[in-house]
């Protein structure tokens, strides 16, 4: 029973997320963007690994000035590296994520809409993203 409830909840969230991007409603960081960054980005882009000189653990780190320029330009998704690298073909060496499953078009559209809408990223606990535990973390 619990498996069916979890599956239903996951599918409901996915369909709500898809509807949010498609109909132009406000994209909420905690509800829409944070889950994508948590599942697809944070394990490589955190202070422990710092791949590409980028940590997405919180707002200050994500918006930090970098040698290659800002990763997120609020209001300008087409100039934001976060969006650009997600849109690159998988064969491109700069395409993200570099390993694992590609981000879905729905997730990419959410990131686009979020940046277009100003890339609001809350301070404090709501804006913190922690790397997910790996098998080696549990040993």
Relative strand content: under 5%
Tell the overall outline: globular
The total count of strands amounts to 0
Order of helices and strands: HHHHH
* Quaternary class: single chain
- Average of pLDDT: 83
Low-confidence stretches: 1-21, 135-139
Distance separating the two termini:
30 Å
Measured as a percent range, the helix fraction is 40-55%
How would a textbook summarize the main sheet? none
SSE class = mainly alpha
Rg, Å, rounded: 15 Å
In DSSP terms (H or I, runs of 4 or more residues), the helix count works out at 5
Describe this structure in words.
The protein has 139 residues and is an all-alpha fold. 41% of the residues lie in helices and 0% in strands. It contains five helices and no strands. It has helices at residues 2-23, 29-40, 59-62, 81-87, 105-116. Helix 1 (2-23) crosses helix 5, helix 2 (29-40) packs across helix 5 (105-116) and helix 4 (81-87) packs antiparallel against helix 5. The longest helix has 22 residues, at 2-23. The chain is globular and about 35 Å long. The two termini are 30 Å apart. 24% of the residues are buried.
Summarize this structure briefly:
With 139 residues, this protein is an all-alpha fold.
Helix/strand layout:
Layout: H1 2-23, H2 29-40, H3 59-62, H4 81-87, H5 105-116
